[in-house]
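Let us work through a complete example step by step.
Step 1: write down the sequence.
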Amino acid sequence: MAHSICILGGGFGGLYTALALSKLDWKDTPHEIVLIDQRDRFVFAPLLYELVTGELQTWEIAPPYEELIANTGIRFHRSGVDSIDIDAQTVDLTDGKSLSYDRIVLALGGETPMDMAPGVAEHAIPFRTLADAYRLKDRLRQLEAANLEKIRVAIVGGGYSGVEIACKVAERLGDKGRVRIVERANQILQTSPEFNQKAALDALDEKNVWIDYETTVTEVTANSFSLSYKDKVDTLPVDIVLWTVGSKVSPALDALNLPRNERGQFTISPTLQVIDYPHIFALGDLADGPDADGKPVPPTAQSALQQADYAAWNIWASLTDRPLLPFRYQHLGEMMTLGTDNATLSGLGIKLEGNLAYVARRLTYLYRMPTLDHQIRVGVNWLTQPVQALLTGSNK
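Step 2: predict the structure and record it as C-alpha cells.
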C-alpha cells in the first residue's frame, strides 16, 4: 500500500517540501504526495509589495499550484482544513473530504491578528495575501479617483513589512500622499542590522513618511484612528489603515493537542518533527525549535525555504529506513525593498543599497522561484520589459 504524505499549506514551507519530495528516489517505495491549500495560487510573499506599484504582475509572483506541480506526481487539493485526528491519522477538510496520512506536514503559516484594538478587524487591511494586496490596490484606486487633496495612509508596525509597504505606497501616491508609520518601540526594524535601518530611514525621509515612535493604536474607525503616546490619546483622520504587526498560528490548528510554546507555535526537534510525534512535521511560522547547533530559527520565509529541503529528506528517510538529518539554519542576510529601483541588502559580508541592491534582490528572488519553468518565464519577462518600454516610448 502506498505511503500517504499530506502537506497542509502551500506557502514556502509546504510547496517547497512537496517539490523536494517529488525529486527524491522513491524506487520500490509506493507513495502519494498531497498538497492542500485553500487558495489556488502560491504567493511569493517578498514580492507582494511590487503589486501595489504595478512593477510586477500577478502571474509573476502568484502562479497557480496546478502549473507549478505539473508533471511532478504531486496531487493538489484545494480546500481549507477543518480538523486533524492525530490518533487516527486523518485530516478532515472544509469541503467535506477526509484524507488519511502516514506523514503530515503542518505548514499553514501564520496569520495577522486583527483583534489587537477595537475596529481593526472591520476597518484595517492586513498585508499578507494576494487578496490583501488587491484590496489595498482597489482602495487606493478609489481614493485616487476621488481627487482628494491628500490621501492619508497609516501603517501600523515598523518592521520589514511596514517599512516596505510604506515606501511603495508613498511612492505611488507622491505629493498627494500623507503616509505615516506607527511603531510602539523607539526605533523601526528593531532586529535588523544598523546598515538596513539607516537605509530605510533615509528612504522614508526622502518619501516624506512620518514615523510615530512609542505609539500604539487604541481604535480604528471607517475614517479615523486613535493613537496613544505617553498616556495621551489623539484621534486623527485617515483614509487607509494597514495592519502589519503580530502573527498567530492558523486557527484551523487551534484544537490540536500538541506541544506548544507560549506563542502557540508547535515545539519541534532539530529534525523538524513535533516533540513526541515523529510522524508530524512542522515548519515555518507555526514551528519553534532549535536547529542542529542549538541556534534559534527565525519565523521567516528564508527559514521555511531552508527547512523544506530537510523536511522532505526526513520524511523520505523515515519511510525508507534511512537516517534523518538535523536542520542546520544558515542566515543568508536580509533584503528589503525601499521603493522602485531602490533596496537594501546585507549579509554574508556584503552591504548594498540603492539600484544595485534592487537588482541583486530581484535576481536572488528569481533564483528562489519554485520551479525552473517559472524562473525562465519570469526572467525572460524581466529582461524584455525594458526593451518593450523603450520601443513603446519611441513609437509615441
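Step 3: interpret the result. The mean pLDDT is 92.
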